[in-house]
Amino acid sequence: VTVVEKADSSSVLPCPVSISTKNKMNFLFANLKDRDFLVQRISDFLQRTPDSLWGDTNPLSLIGSSGSHNVPLSSSTGSDSVQKGRHYHPGLPTARQSLLQLYHRDGPEDLGPKAMKERMKEEAWNIHFSEFGRGVCMYRTSRTRELILNGIPESLKGELWLLFSGAQNEMASHPGYYGDLVEQTMGLCSLATEEIERDLHRSMPEHRAFQNEMGIAALRRVLTAYAHRNPNIGYCQAMNIVTSVLLLYGTEEEAFWLLVALCERMLPDYYNTRVVGALVDQGVFEDLTRAFLPQLYEHMQELGVITTISLSWFLTLFLSVMPFDSAVLLVDCFFYEGIKVIFQVALAVLHDNMDALLACSDEGEAMTILGSLIRI
To answer: Where are the compositionally biased (Polar residues) regions (predicted)?
Structure first.
């Protein structure tokens, strides 16, 4: 046995427990009278299992739901953290690499147009670094903005997001903080962890990185660690979508500090229970719409649809409605210039759909137009 976790209950399968084995077989046991006790007991045995028994094929990052636990990855270094059975340590692949690096597809595709475009972007950035520095010593110039508008190459997104958001400074000044949070939250059950568990498999389910336990477990750890760090926010829907993208381009620790920057500085009060910050910005967005698109504003007010549809745009940074490549380009711009980019894109979306929206006779029709995939 490698993983034990509580599964979602249903009328058909009440109080189920899912158990996975080393050879990737899964078993589901239902109608258990004392599920919590059983999960805890099996987890205790797993934690006491010597690392040597797992061999080289030990599953990576095996953490289940709020009542599940992972097995420490075996390591030839014999570090203290592994010997003590810590749940999180630098041996995890997601502690060293982004999910995109782990799931990068090698082969003929690397010679395609997209790969060539990425290499050209990387070369342009390397030239920029040689002239204006790299990391915290880099100068921000008009050329920096041009490069960002062209899209940051995948290999540099995580590094530059950390730099532009200020998350790099916080991460450097709090070494080991994220790992300690993961340790403290392992096995804890709360309202936040239950909400996180419900949303884990809704986070970019189409991406291969989140179609297996390693990606899901990394997302679970980051969201749970942040909920423990900031109980005033805990967990809010939309955080899972944003964090899943952060994990594609950064390690777990990097994604965590980017989430901290997002929730606590760049979008303050967006992700609390009442989404106060987002609602305030909806008021600002309505004012901007009235100033720049007065005719459309009057019509949309009659339909009562502006705030309803745009709230999700702001909370997810358009990641929930745009094609992935376009949305990630927008995230590049957001980390460089802040929330004004979201206002600009939201206004552009209304402007581009103005004729169709003016022709709408009811709220549902307008929602259909604005809820469809946006392409830029």
So the answer is: 65-82
On the question of pLDDT at 68 being above 60, the answer is no
DSSP state of 268: T
Q: Which of 343, 330, 338, 339 is nearest to 288 (CA)?
A: 343
In angstroms, the CA 233 to CA 276 distance is 11
Q: Tokens for 202?
A: 């809704």
Q: What radius of gyration, in Å, describes the C-alpha atoms of the chain?
A: 23
Give 12-64 as a DSSP string. Answer: SS-S-EEEE-TTS-EEEE---TTHHHHHHHHHHHHHHS-GGGTGGGPPSS---
Q: Where in 215-368 does DSSP place strands (E)?
A: none
pLDDT value for 256 = 97
Whether residue 3 contacts residue 87, with contact meaning beta carbons closer than 8 Å, is answered with: no
φ, ψ (nearest 5 deg) of residue 17: -125, 130
Residues with Cβ within 8 Å of 57's Cβ and at least 6 positions away in sequence, in order, are 22
**How many Å apart are CA 349 and CA 374, to the nearest integer?**
8
CA angle 15, 19, 24 (to 5 degrees): 145
Minimal CA–CA distance to 239: which of 266, 216, 262, 257? Answer: 262
Query: Which of the 8 DSSP states describes residue 264?
Result: I
Side by side, which strands form the sheet with 26-29? 3-6, 17-20, 26-29
CA distance 213 to 221: 12
pLDDT digits (tens, 9 = 90+) for 137-194: 899 899 999 999 999 999 999 999 999 999 999 999 999 999 999 999 888 888 889 9
- Helix (H) or strand (E) segment spanning residue 369: helix 363-371
Reported as a single tens digit per residue, the pLDDT across 71-117 is 333 333 333 333 333 456 667 888 889 999 887 744 445 557 888 89
Total number of residues shown for the chain: 376
Q: Round to whole Å and give the CA distance between 356 and 361.
A: 10
Parallel, antiparallel, or unpaired for β 3-6 and 17-20? antiparallel
pTM of the full predicted structure?
Answer: 0.74
**SS3 at position 240:** helix
